[in-house]
Amino acid sequence: MRKTLSISLLVMLVALLAAGCNLDADEGLFRQISKSEPVVDVGRITLLDIDGNDIYALTSYRGLQKYDTITKKWLTNSIRPAISANDSNPIIKANFNSITDKFHFTTTALEGENNNLYSYVSAANPAVELVSSAFQVIQMDPTLNLMLSKSVGGLKVRSIDTQTDKFTITGYLDFPWMIAQNDTLVLISGRTAADPEVYANTLFNTTDSAIAITGIDAPIVAFHFDGTQYIFIASDGKVWKGTSPAGLTTSETISFPVDGITGKPIPTFFADDKLYIQGTSAFYAIHMDGTVDTIEDGFATNLRSTSFKITSFLYDGSDLYGGTAKNGIFNVPDLTGDTVNWL
């Protein structure tokens, strides 16, 4: 009896020790996974500028923000200088102009009313200035000097700093989106006024000439033009290519995380003659001939596309920065390497 009891106690002790070891191992693995993509409380991050150790971004929870890569901290409060007692509305759109070294942002407005547009200089003596209250601003490009605004009878693309008209768009009903490759090549995608079930996609160039994109009956969420060849990605995942927006063909289909808003542009960056996007379960590189590579090495080795959602990219030709929906900011110092730094 004593021998049986001793054996039973020994078995129980071994089982408890094994369970403890497994628990420690599981917790260790969980901690490693958790630490790989940190969870932060600033919400969706739209990257605006990298200035030394400071990263400026528009965040969905805290407005215009600055992140210090040395201290690993966001500002306690939003970058919100005292504008006026009459405008305590949240900052909803923002842009950084690298030429003037100024930020511009708009605050919320009631339906049908114009937004206040401000400029902000983040210098030793920060200053904010009301620039205009003349427009209903729909969208601001984060890094290009462009904003999409409502106008009598249609839409206008304007420069942010001077509010100068650049392109006039007619025939769109609502939910229009602007995708800009640069200050002189802009795509507008949205539902038509003639038939709200039909989507139209139009390119505008330096001459303010509208270039209709034919054959694509879904919203366009990304595009690139290399001077000869176009590629367009539609919201249904089809990749279209051609030398003219009027003669496009498609043979590839990809999947990517939806944003909850049909036709909203997806984050991309262009490098090595390829357009890169985050897919649903992998990263894709889209060649200018419309072929698609699934990226399985390099930076994708340590960036798990299924575990976080990218909301913006900043690529300076060497370093890639990515803002995410809830996991902060990451940096890839070399696209061909596998190093990923979660900042």
Could you explain how this protein is built, in words?
This protein has a domain at 1-36. It is 10% helix and 43% strand. The protein has one helix at 2-36, and strands at 45-51, 54-59, 63-68, 73-74, 91-97, 102-107, 115-121, 127-140, 147-151, 154-158, 165-169, 177-182, 185-191, 199-204, 210-212, 220-225, 230-234, 238-242, 249-253, 269-271, 274-278, 283-287, 292-295, 310-315, 320-324, 329-332, 341-342. The strands form 6 sheets. Strands 5-6-7-8-9-10-11 form a 7-stranded antiparallel β-sheet, with no helix packed on it. The protein has a 4-stranded antiparallel β-sheet with strand order 1-2-3-4, with no helix packed on it. The longest helix has 35 residues, at 2-36. 33% of the residues are buried.
What secondary-structure arrangement, pairings included, does this model have?
Elements: H1 2-36, E1 45-51, E2 54-59, E3 63-68, E4 73-74, E5 91-97, E6 102-107, E7 115-121, E8 127-140, E9 147-151, E10 154-158, E11 165-169, E12 177-182, E13 185-191, E14 199-204, E15 210-212, E16 220-225, E17 230-234, E18 238-242, E19 249-253, E20 269-271, E21 274-278, E22 283-287, E23 292-295, E24 310-315, E25 320-324, E26 329-332, E27 341-342
Antiparallel strand pairs: 1-2, 2-3, 3-4, 5-6, 6-7, 7-8, 8-9, 9-10, 10-11, 12-13, 13-14, 14-15, 16-17, 17-18, 18-19, 20-21, 21-22, 22-23, 24-25, 25-26, 26-27
